[in-house]
Structure formats: structure tokens, C-alpha cells
Amino acid sequence: MANFNITKNINQISSQLQKSNTEESLQLANQQSQHFELETSNRFTQLSDDKNSDTDAVTERDTSSRKALLIGNSHVKRIRTGNFIQNCLVHKYIEHSCEGMMDKIEELDTDYECILLHVFTNNIRDDTVEECVQKTEELIDALRRHCQFAKIIISLPFLTIQDKALNNKIEECNILLQYKFLKHVYVTISNNSRLSSGNVPIKKFYGVDGLHLSNQGVSVFVAGIKFHMKNILQVTETLKMRQQASKPERGPKQNRHERSFSNQTHSSSQKANDQSPMSPFFMYPWGPGYNYNQMMYPPQMNDFHRKCNFFGLKDDIFICYIYNPPENSSYTKSLREDIFDLIEKDISKYSDTGKILLAGDLNARTGTQVLDFINNDESLDNIPVFDKISPDLNLPVRYSMDEVLSTRGKSLNEICIQSGLRILNGRTPGDFTGQLTCYSPNGSSVFDYFIASENLMENILFFNCAQTFGGAFRSLPNFRNVKNRL
């Protein structure tokens, strides 16, 4: 009987100890969770752990508390927000105009870290382009006052299939919006360029009404949103999450004028990252001006020479696609003559009989707001020695999101000044910001350019650096389309 009582007492003491340990663990877990719910001045970084905290304490910010908001019209309405981005709560608010959203801002939560705006279509129809841009700016300012930690993504309106008048206003509005928010650190532009080729909407991405998106178009639209949101929220999806992503549909066979490089040159990186299809690099059947192997091969004239009647212009066009290896590469060091010197010689040779277009990866960083022409060159007209020299046109200052000016970049700017060529990046409708063209583990940069003869620029109405949404460290197929007046 005594043994039975002893055993009973031991069991009671053991159960009480287990209960006490459980309560203590729960209290510790609550303390750790509260540690991450404190407000901080920088919502994208964690608070440093206390010096007396355990070494095993969690050191990463609890990403499950991140919140994002999608504000938009019927296009946004079709987006499913469940599991939209891993470890992020995404809400959706449907509104069709900036004015309507201004009246409802107080209904929103105040702790969103990222807000997407796609509410412009009705404003573009009813207002002038300038009024639309002004209302957008006022709405962004109001959202920033309400959600002071939020960064804004402006999703530019897309073109329609049939309404040409509306398309013209949309294009003007897109250009002004990009220019307006060029220097805003809390605003990102999602240009939805993959829904169109230049200024021509791709029909398979639109429904029968030519206005709303098809299922495939919504997928492309969503891919762009996710790309920018992940960058802002600093979210990295796990491998399991990527494997659950749907594979891209196989599109129709492309003809020789639209050979996509994505399946050939980026197949390995595409498997390792997002499975969304990449924007094509439209490569027309004009061979490269140079073939950089162990020897320099002279270009074949028929491969890159287009007669003037092909474009309906007055002069012939000589086109050269270039890859210039890195300056410190063993291949570059083995060359007898610098590649830029060879390019400059051919520019001098062919510019006498036509206009020049250069495109490709030049591995040169030309900086921002650095002139590639002589400013106020017309003032030299009064000096007799310059009578036979045509003054440079006063073009818009060229901007770039890559502010670094490398040695090669200086050389490229000098070549442009001496030869009368001008860089399209950062000063042409469609890319007033000088979008980044290269993403690598060492950082982002602008290495890839499209360069044209100065007197050809009036014929170029649109220029765009295509974007890919696969991951932070993928090289981009940079130049999607350049259209002339025809």
C-alpha cells in the first residue's frame, strides 16, 4: 500500500513538472514572436537581438507579417490573391479611377509594405494626359501619407486591339508617367511591355472584345506584378514553390524574323528560376557585323545592309550586332587591336553612304546625364573654320539607372560624339529612365545599348528594354523592338 502511494505521488509530481515546462515554452515562444511585431524605422530589416538573448534565437524577420495590396480595375479583379507570393498576405481592392480611390483610402489598412496601382483606364478616356498624370501623382501622395512605409508599383495601362485613339493617349500617358517618377525612390514602374510588341498589342493576350485580357494575358500581367513585388518585399521563393509553378505554354511556331533566343541561351537559368516565359529578342535576318572568335572576320555586306526602300527612308541603313567581351577577359587581352577602334573605323567607312545602327552587349557603362553630343554646337557657326561642320542636334539629356561611368563608357561616349551616333537608352519614348539590362551576383548595370545615327533618331518612335521575371541574377534579352515611322 505504501509503494502504491509513493508511485501515485511521483506520477503527480511528474505531470506537474511537464505542465510547468509546457507553459514556460509557450511564454518563451510568445516573447520571441512579439520581438518581431515591434515597429521599426526600417520595415525591411529586423531589429538587432538583445545582447543577453540566447544564441539560438531567431535572427530573420518574420516574413508572414508582410502585406501587399493590389488596387485596380477589371484586370486586377481576375487575379487570385491566395498564395500570390510566398509568406506574404495580399489583399485586393477594385476601383476604376483615381478619384474613386482617393475617396476610399481611409478604408485601407495602414501597414501595407507594397501597393500596386492599375486604375488609369477610365481617367485616360475622360481626361487629358496631363490631368491623368497629375491625378496619379496625387493618389500616390495620398497613399504614402496613409501607408507611410509602403512602396508603390505603377502598373502602366496596356494598349487595346482596336481603339487607336485610346492607344495614342495610353502611349503618351505611359511616357509621361515614366518620366514623372524617374527619380522617385519609393515608386517602381511595371511597364507591361510583354503584352505588346513595340506599340502593337499581341492579340493572343486579349479577349474577344480586344480590351480585356485573355487567360494567357492575365498570366503575363501577373508575372510582371510578382517580379516587382518580390524585389520590393525581398521575397525568395523556395524550390518547392517553383516546382509548383505551371510550365509556359508552347506558342505558335515563329518564322525566321522572330527567332527567340530565350529557349537557347537561357534554358538552364530558366529551369533554376521562375518558369514564366521570357520576352523574345526579335532578331531580324541581318547577320552581325563582327564575328569574334580567334580571328576577326570582315562583315558580309548583304548580311547587314538594308536598302532605303526597305524602310521607306532616304538613306540606306547599315546594321551591326555586337558583343564586346569584358575588358579584363583573356580574349580581350589577346587581341592585337581594340574592338572599339575597329567599330570606329567601320562607322567612318559606312556613314558616308548611309545611316548606322549598332546594337548589342558592349560591356561599357556610360553613366547618367553624360553627354554623347556637343552641347550648344550651333554657337560654332560663326567661326569660319567650322563652316563645313554640321552642328549636333540638342537632344534630351540621357538618363540611366546605372550611374557608373567606366573607362569603356567614356570611350563609347567619345565615339558617339566624333561619329554623330546617339545612344537610344534613357532618352527615347519607352525608356526615358535608362532601364537596367544586366543582372548578376555582383550587381545590376547597363551594358547593352542600341545606338543610331543622329539624323535617324527622328524616325524612331519607340524603344523598350524587355523585362524578364525569372530572378534577380539573369541576363536579359534586352532590346525587344525599335519601330520607325512606317
From TrEMBL:
Residues 48-60, 247-260 have a biased composition (Basic and acidic residues). InterPro entries: Endo/exonu/phosph_ase_sf, SGNH_hydro_sf. It comes from the Eukaryota. Residues 261-276 have a biased composition (Polar residues). Residues 41-60, 241-276 are annotated as: Disordered. Coiled coil: none annotated. Gene3D superfamilies: Endonuclease/exonuclease/phosphatase, SGNH hydrolase. This is Endonuclease/exonuclease/phosphatase domain-containing protein. It comes from Mytilus galloprovincialis (Mediterranean mussel).
